[in-house]
Amino acid sequence: MNAKDTQVYVSRVIGLPLVDAAGDQVGRIRDVVFHLRTGSLAPRVRGLLVELFARQRIFVPMIRVHAITANQVSILGQVDTRKFQKRDTELLVDGDLFDRPVPREHPTKIYDVSIVQVRNREWEVRSVALHSRTKVGRFGFGGRSTTEIVRWDEVPDLVLAKGRTAAHFVAEFSDMKAADVARELHDLDPERLAEVVHALDDETLAEAIEELPEDEQVELIQALDHERAADVLEEMDPDDAADLIKELPAAMAEDLLQRMEPEDASDVRRLLLYEEHTAGGMMTPEPIVLDTDATVAMALARCRDEQLTPALAAMVFITRAPHETPSGRYIGACHFQQLLRSAPTLQVATMLDQNLEALTPTTPLAEVSRFFATYNLVVAPVVNHLGQLVGAVTVDDVLDHMLPDDWRGIQMDAQRASEVTGGRG
């Protein structure tokens, strides 16, 4: 059932075991979470509501779902075990749709909903199964039951009502790039902004915050309650989260770090040790790190991870164990193009770029920019005095630090002015 355009009925998914990449059961599926979208766009499935063995219910995003079969749902990567909290703009298929009345000539209710994978790990609601019963006789006899499969947009509850509510903004944002979402947030009045921010999921909000001007990032994160703010910071790239935390009052910054998951907080704390305009202050601590016996096929599989930016996917790094930063001894780096030109069974360690030196955490911005220009790079390794890989700097990080501090705000205001004047100079 994991093939594109294969419909899966939610009633058959509920109750299935959820298993991780190792084949171990994590919990059981209890519901499917989705949200409405504007215009003719079908409702998008956000993820699964999963009940752990401890009876706690958590959210698993659809991007983690590898396959849905008749016997189980399998996932890749780690799951967040925090308790699921439904947002105002989210709906549950079982909890909110099953048995809901639908306007028809005879009494009609929803008894099932199908979802379909339309793109890689992106799912939408496709159709709705309705159950109707014709009017019974005077003494309760007669009548008959019928079933009907209809398109999602034939069910009023799945069509977003007209009006610019928070739900509309969230629906529109689901198909927009993070920079465009940030621009929309930038233009909202404070009251509407608070409503929309409250309705957004943590991941979308985190990506948008990264694209906002620095002062607006600070204002927005300070306006959230500390628990939500910590959740949003966890979803941000560690280097962006560190830059933002540096701008917060010391007491608030420490409180947020304490509330974050230990692993996420640890990454951010390490970045806070470095000056902002150095390789250490700009780097991400989550590049692709492989063992010395990794093959080209294994490296390419890691490069395909949808969570990686194109820049981070452009190079893999070989180290001794451990393979999380700070790693074991750094061995070298291999470019993505070299991997594409090589046989899948070859070891990556045999094709490292011998001319590529590593940056140090204290390398200043001016040297970093010259380094990128000299070697025509989009990503570069950062290695400490102990010979450990501690992170990687990407070209977008370099540009972000070379541009004026308020370049995002200037760009947004310029775009808005251009729209007002109809694009005329």
Automatic annotation (TrEMBL):
Gene Ontology, cellular component aspect: membrane
Pfam families, per the entry: CBS, MgtE_N, PRC, SH3_actinomycetes
InterPro entries: CBS_dom, CBS_dom_sf, Mg_transptr_MgtE_intracell_dom, MgtE_N_sf, MgtE_transporter, PRC-brl_dom, PRC_barrel-like_sf, SH3_actinomycetes
This protein's UniProt keywords: CBS domain
Gene3D superfamilies per record: CBS-domain, MgtE N-terminal domain-like
GO molecular function: magnesium ion transmembrane transporter activity
UniProt xrefs under PROSITE patterns: CBS
Ranges where the CBS domain occurs: 351-412
Name used for this protein in its record: CBS domain-containing protein
Organism: Tessaracoccus rhinocerotis
Higher taxonomy: Bacteria, Bacillati, Actinomycetota, Actinomycetes, Propionibacteriales
